[in-house]
Design brief:
about 325 residues; 2 domains; 3-stranded antiparallel β-sheet; 11 helices; 10 strands; globular
């Protein structure tokens, strides 16, 4: 990772190459923000005359493990949801090569606000559930058409593709293979009404301002899929991670608040809810092996292992 001075120079180099000879400098130099398990995040403001540069911006630098062209996929999702009126940052630029910061990047609007718990307190997960249901009611057909047009609609971007990927990773992680085999043998039929799925929908990825949700952030895991899968990923975060990260968090009470609020806005077919929680746990255990810190903590890993065992009878032992 470059130091901040090198990052600043690289960002200016990108804009000068992208926009030609336009005079560009910083009004506010880049600062690295906290958060972002999947990306490194910088906040800055430029002083150029280009209309996209007249406001505070965010640069997200992706991990090298992300699929090629992933930043383009996120841009399509972001900007389609903006067009539908959702509080999602508009993406102005993407770069899919490693020339500037060592991996692909996207540059988007800065969205003001505080994370949900700071604004809504005990009602946080009620707001989370209602917002999640609204997202799943978005028109995913146009988003899917745009994704397919850019080459993101193949098998590799489906649930089957996710399972194929996990099985391939099991060549290096044999301790996970029995779970992945179970997932393949028990996978649900194709969802009749897929939705845009965030993939990591929890209170830390939503901002609020003046009593309303002002931003839905971090779309690194997004895809068009069964909305039940997206709900299950939130349950995994609550029941495996948040209960250990926030000692006062009662996962049973907060899960009920979230689910009741979701179901007040949208039907939830629970038939495959357990299946998708197993999938979420398997992906989290894999993420721990590539350095996503939240999933490397022993108490959290134990919760993931326990959830898998409770739903499948398979015991996983993560090597020390």
């Amino acid at each position: 990772m470059k130091n901040l001075s090198q990052v600043s120079d690289s960002i200016l180099s990108f804009f000068k190459d992208e926009l030609g000879e336009m005079k560009i400098g910083y009004e506010s130099s880049p600062v690295q923000l906290e958060g972002g398990n999947e990306t490194t995040i910088f906040h800055f403001k430029l002083n150029g005359d280009h209309p996209s540069l007249s406001k505070p911006l965010i640069l997200r630098k992706f991990r090298k493990e992300h699929e090629p062209n992933h930043s383009i996929q996120e841009k399509i999702v972001h900007n389609s949801l903006v067009d539908q009126g959702f509080p999602v940052p508009y993406v102005h630029f993407t770069c899919i090569n490693n020339d500037y910061l060592g991996s692909q990047i996207l540059i988007m609007d800065y969205m003001p606000g505080d994370i949900l718990p700071m604004v809504f307190g005990p009602d946080t997960n009620i707001v989370l559930g209602k917002t999640h249901a609204a997202l799943h009611n978005a028109n995913s057909i146009r988003i899917n058409e745009d994704l397919i047009a850019e080459g993101f609609g193949g098998r590799q971007h489906s649930i089957e593709g996710k399972l194929d990927w996990l099985l391939e990773e099991c060549e290096h992680l044999p301790w996970l293979e029995n779970v992945v085999r179970w997932l393949m043998e028990n996978r649900p039929s194709e969802c009749d009404f897929p939705s845009i799925c965030h993939g990591d929908f929890h209170p830390g990825n939503l901002l609020a301002k003046d009593g309303v949700v002002s931003a839905i952030l971090d779309w690194s895991c997004c895809q068009i899929s069964d909305p039940v899968m997206d709900v299950a990923s939130t349950l995994v975060v609550f029941n495996a991670a948040t209960k250990h990260l926030i000692p006062a968090f009662d996962s049973n009470i907060e899960t009920r608040k979230y689910l009741d609020a979701y179901k007040s806005e949208r039907d939830l077919d629970k038939q495959y809810l357990e299946y998708y929680q197993v999938l979420g746990c398997a992906i989290a255990l894999f993420a721990g092996t590539i350095g996503v810190l939240v999933w490397t903590q022993p108490p959290i890993q134990k919760e993931l292992i326990d959830i898998i065992y409770n739903f499948t009878g398979i015991h996983v032992e993560v090597p020390g």
